[in-house]
Amino acid sequence: MRGKHSLFYHILIFIIAQIVWLSLLGIWIYWYVSNYIIYEKVGDQVSPQLLYDVQNALPFVLGLILLIGLSFFTSVIFRDLNVQLRLRELYDNFIGNVTHELKSPLSSIQLYLETMKQRDVPPDKQKEFLNIMLKDADRLQRLINSILEISAHESKKTLQNYQVCPADQLLKTIMEESFERFRIKKENYKITGSVPCEIAAAKESLKIVFDNLADNAVKYSPDDIDINVKLSCTSNKLTIDFSDKGIGIPLTEKNKIFRKFYRIKNKEIPNVKGTGLGLYQVKQIIKLHGGKISLISNIAARGASFRIELPVYTGSDKRLIKGRQESNG
Amino acid sequence: MDNEIAGSRILLVEDEETLAGGLEYNLSAEGYLVTWAKNGREAVRLFNTEKFDLIILDIMLPFLNGFEVAEIVREKDIRMPILMLTAKTEPADKVKGLETGADDYLTKPFHLEELLLRVRGMLKRKSWYKSASENQPVYSFGNNEINFENLYCRHENKEMRITPHEAMLLKYLVERKGEIVTRKELLENVWHLNPEIETRTVDIFIARLRKYFESDPSNPVFFRSVRGAGYTFSEE
Q1: A163-311 has which CATH code?
Q2: What are the tens digits of pLDDT across the range B139-197?
Q3: Cis omega (within 30 of 0) for bond into B137
Q4: Are B112 and A1 a contacting pair at CB < 8 A?
């Protein structure tokens, strides 16, 4: 609301400023023309030397240039103000969403602690409550880490803290852990194919990637969750096709979804919670791994389908060697 | 727990599964019957098919948000107590929540004891109002008439509908006709609020009652102020 009001006031100020400049320009032209006519009529009689020549037109032209220039700069300022306003709106939304995401697990932890303090909770329930609290604490930690790591990923140009490991085992383990974290049952996901190759990967970063994809699949699946992951590789490239049967993403949003703070507004599932950082962060991490991620066309099947491509480790990756030197340095 | 509110049915609308689980455990331990809805759409469906005495409602919900659910509930049942429970702390959200029909507002993270107190207070208030209205659903004074069940009232020839809180305040004053009722008493018994911080609330609501029922609100006949004490209601 505040953003909309501010935008309205800025548009109003811009229009008023333009009217003022144009009026000023009109007055300027009127003043000059009326003086010119007077000079023409009586100039010869008052002072024969006072004749119109090119030099007299100079202040007029300069004045016009000045006014047009000012008008142009007003437009530039207005455009920049709009960008600022949009950024502030995004920032406000982000803060609101993050606050909500932080407060929810915190409220849950506080509730269970107070319950255990005030009530006589049976031992089996106590154990259950402790597990819930640990999961909420883990959720808090993941959220805080992902926010902190965004700026770290942004400032990095090369992959650091990586390990060269067998891709098949690493990817399958990370994905299964993510599915478990988001309470996706075994019957609701399928991992097919294999990747008998090695990749250089930062395990903790890849966890964030699959956590985000799994979280999105859960949030955007109004009915049963159905995730399909297909792994394949060639001699130099490893491909992961991650699809769900949720509400899907319109292809018009193909590039926008990876923007920072961008959130899809979907009528089928309104009010989906999130920070707008997930897919942005996923893209950053995949880029750091030397790979790429894209939303692939899935017109026939319902749902969203992402393709992740990562380079296979060949032992002579200059990018990684540079990263190693930087982290050692 | 009081017999009058034991076994009250609560619709808990919360999409955070762990939080909902904890709330359900505590409310059930207090003797309430809890039904959990994990999104706005499910909440509306349950509200339309089952009977509830109170709704605990989160704001940020999938499908329909808490404000939208509150509006739907209010259209059907103007007197259903709604406690909004949310992580939003902006004053604008609180105002919006109360405007859309919430009776009370609690921000996350909250204290368990405070939540249970508020739930108890709201249920007791509903129970008191229900029994008081059943005894005398329609009440007349001067040129005015009020139906405490459907909240429709008539002043001279003008008909209008008042809010549940206004009706509760009026009912409370009518039951203590001729007595001086303090602001503190009203805040504690009608609003269940801390009387130290909200004294203007009562004055605003009394002003509204005067506007509805007095021919000349600046010279009230029915709702009179008693300087330094509070208010008194008389039939003429």
Answers
A1: 3.30.565.10
A2: 899 889 998 888 889 998 889 888 877 888 998 999 899 999 998 888 888 876 666 65
A3: no
A4: no
